[in-house]
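In response to a reviewer's request, we include the raw inputs and outputs for one of the modeled complexes. The two entities were modeled together in a single run.
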Amino acid sequence: MTDTNINTPIAPTWCPGCFNFQILAGIKSSLNEEFKKGRSKDDFAIVSGIGCHGKIFDYVNLNGINTLHGRVLPTCLGIKVGNPNLTVIGFSGDGDAYAEGMEHLIHAARYNSDFKYFVHNNQVFALTAGQPTPTTEIGYKDKITPLGVKLHPINPIKLMLSAGATFVARVYADKPQIEYVFKEAMKHKGFAFIEILQPCVIFHPDKGYKERTYSLEEEKHDKTNFDAAMKKADEFDYNLAEKIPLGIFYQKEKTVFEDNFPQLVDLKKKGIGWSSVKR
Amino acid sequence: MKFTILFGGKAGQGVNILSAILGKALTKEGYYVFVSRDYQSLIRGGHNFNVLTFSDKPVYSNNSVIDLIVAQDDNTITLHKKEMKKEGMIIQKEGAGNMYFAGRLFKSLCLDFKILERELKELDRFEENMKEAKEGYEEEKKVACRVVSNKKKLTFRNGNQGITNGAIESGIDVYYAYPMTPATNVMGELAEKQIEKNLVVIELESEIGVMNSAIGSAITGAKTMVGTSGGGFDLMTEALSLTGIAEVPVVIYLASRPGPSTGVATYSGQGDLELARHAGHGEFPRLVIAPGDPDECEEITSQAFYFSQKFGIPAIVLSDKHLAEGTYTSDRKTTITPSKKLTKLGRYNSYEKDKFGCATEDAEQIKKNVDERIKKWKEFEKETEKFEGFKIYGNKNSKNVVLFWGSTKGAILDAMENVNAKFVQVLYMDPFSSKIKKEIEGKNIILVENNATAQLGKLVAEKTGIFIEEKNKILRYDGRPFLSDELNNELRKRIK
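The model returned the following structure tokens for the whole complex.
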């Protein structure tokens, strides 16, 4: 039998009650689904950035790299170019994805390389002890912002939609919907953007978000309708809002990045990466 | 014989095509040719010029005296007539087509029209070009120089083409870049050949994206290379440090131009030796090698792949605009160092890691990792001693030593006449050969560099304890390359 144990002997150092535990469980469960289908650990590569989210690399025993802060996306792209047969999963925090790595995020949506990208959005720089990120709400105060945050948060869902992302979803860390969305993301061909709203129990606890969320699937939202997706994205501006939609906002098929290169298509046909190309 | 032609005109008039046609044709006729490019950072207008020097003996640089000016505009004559010999010749006609000049030029050099026709066949617009060329050929009555064919087999290429060939010969799989002069042409050359040679060339959003994607590809086992100039390299340095800790093999082509910052974007300089040696935080091994001509570009690129694959390290090939875009003839057969693909996908980390590939803060584990990297570093240094870390020319027993590196090689080789000295070209900058010290110790050392602070001089002082006298430093830092006759004068002033 092939080894499908993805546990590492490392004990997580997330805070007690951290929502990253739920995300880890969700990821492991969707990976185990893949193994049930007969896929092996060698079919996968994972990439994480720097921040609390990045520790997930230590708790999932798959190949890949715990890379630099903000550089998860180009690293994922590079792995896909190196071997387009790998299923590549990237993890970032909101600092990673929306601050330091923003230039890559917009282009990742445009490139549509075939990998999954999970953003653990706790709306705060947690591992550096509570500074605001680009999605922190107006009025948030910490040591470096005694006057309170004045800037409007960016809306990553709208940003991804307008940048041309082909799979745009948002989930809440401890809602069962996460499994459905993860499963759909794994099936998607192209760049799958999944934002996970995740309270930080120390620096940014849930401010009443959870009760205000509702499921797009239950509401029968048409995920093929771009305009409807933009409207739904507008409902939550990352300040405290009446309603927070969760689920798949938008999904469409588009040529994936790797398929623009006959050389990479050839590697896909042969089921190999460049490492096996003899010259 | 040695003959120098200056081709001048506005950007877009085709100075480059003209000098390339003549250069290729002369190479096929068995002549040694060197072409340098001087162009401004603009697309149309301004003033661009190329200088082509050819000879029946090896030539690797230009000299300061022009024999013939091909002027596509009046400005060329205004600017360059003073550089021309008294008996020099000018080919000029305002508003004429590019190939008209080619026709007159070939005729004035007594080259058969068929030789020109052969070159025109390799270009688009053959019929129109032929018509223009014939008109020029028939019109020209003066003889500037009698070129007689010989049977020498020569190659004709620029430094960037040498780099490209080296990458292909090394079995490159993936090349990433963001356009930046003077490295951009490597991306173009490789992209043109990507289907035929089965490799992939990708332009990304920034040099940060480039270097991080390169790391992604490299950890899957792909032979990966990136190319840039100083500013782009600066953006890569955080990821360069990542290749240090994660032990990822990436070849980096750094083609310099004068800085700091945007500096002089389309001119040449050797101001980035210290950047290449010191970029990135933390302590980790790297290879920095500087070729001096297109053949060395090819060989050194293959060595960069060899060392980066064997030791899992970044390997920097350092050139500059003069070498990257200067075109040279050669009769030498190059030696490629073959390299295996040795990288396997595993668990890589930007943190210090334990045996599971997980981040660690354990003191014992950290020390163990560092010790292993240092051990590898020593083994790598030892192995570089087997390679040609430096080359020697001239009189090996002379009490004078001329020390140089990179693109100054061309002017140096052409400036050796009547200079009684041992010429030492340093190729491996990091690791620096331990054998260099005894080659230069106790000698009258003269240093030639295209920068203002003598960066090789500082490196030599650091590694050997030998300091070069200020008056013996020949430094040029106006964005222009050395010219052989001027350099010869400078050298002779300092010889004992």
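As requested, we also summarize the result in words. Residues 20-36 of chain A form the longest helix (17 residues). Chain A has a mean pLDDT of 96.
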